[in-house]
Write a structure and sequence with these properties.
Elements: H1 2-18, E1 23-34, E2 37-44, E3 51-72, E4 78-83, E5 85-91, E6 97-105, E7 108-112, E8 126-142, H2 145-149, E9 156-165, E10 168-171, E11 175-195, H3 210-231
Antiparallel strand pairs: 1-11, 2-9, 3-8, 3-11, 4-7, 4-10, 5-6, 5-9, 6-8
């Protein structure tokens, strides 16, 4: 019987704390995909009947993995530089930009011998490689009424995640070839709101406020202590 009372008290405290939750979080993941690409991220609009939307935060990280193949066609040896780079952008449904973040890797330098009259990988003037890695992150907080209007309403809407390949292959002579770039994205959308009621919307991820957690934790301990003292 005592165990049931303790469990009931704990559940009461947890329920009260959940009433103060004010975050809804969505996560969108695009695996490594050859750039350039466009990906739609669907989310549920914030219903104004639930409360007041205070802000929308968009954060995330992009990664790239590039490979290259090239051949120097000049008769003299030539230096080359290879830079894997992509532009990762977020856009509203009407193509209004939100974020532009560069996802870049280190520049790789090569010096290839002069063209020996042989085409393809058997030539001394041919080079290929992979595993050129890079990353980039972004974080922006939207709180102006115009931006928040894109996240408010009923039903669902869309954000567009766009990766544009900006890799470069630069040499001083005549050459052929290019860079193949794969880009991934991991994007988090967090809606911060002041609720009208104690019921969080279905499917939301509830993150309690630290100060509220302390207050309700103390209250729970006090309640359990009183129950135990009354039993003695």
């Amino acid at each position: 019987m005592r165990a049931v009372s303790m469990l009931s008290a704990a559940l009461l405290c947890l329920s009260a704390e959940a009433a103060h939750a004010n975050l809804i979080t969505y996560n969108f993941v695009v695996p490594l995909t050859q750039a350039s690409w466009v990906n739609g991220a669907q989310f549920a609009l914030f219903d104004p009947s639930l409360g007041t939307l205070n802000s929308a935060e968009l954060s995330g990280v992009g990664n790239l993995s590039a490979s290259y193949q090239m051949q120097n066609l000049a008769t003299a040896g030539s230096p080359f530089s290879i830079r894997p780079l992509a532009d990762l952008g977020l856009y509203f449904v009407d193509d209004t930009p939100i974020i532009d973040a560069l996802v870049g890797g280190s520049t790789t330098g090569l010096v290839l011998p002069g063209y020996d009259g042989i085409s393809g990988s058997s030539s001394a003037s041919y080079a290929a490689g992979s595993g050129l890695l890079g990353s980039g992150s972004f974080d922006t907080l939207l709180s102006d009424p115009t931006s928040l209007s894109y996240f408010t309403g009923t039903g669902e809407s869309m954000l567009y995640i766009v990766a544009q390949d900006m890799s470069s292959l630069v040499g001083t002579g005549l050459y052929t070839g290019g860079v193949t770039n794969q880009v991934s994205a991991d994007v988090t959308l967090t809606l911060n709101y002041t609720p009208n009621s104690s019921s969080p919307p279905p499917g939301s991820i509830v993150l309690p406020e630290p100060s509220g957690a302390v207050v309700f934790g103390v209250a729970c301990l006090a309640l359990l202590g009183l129950r135990r003292r009354a039993r003695r």
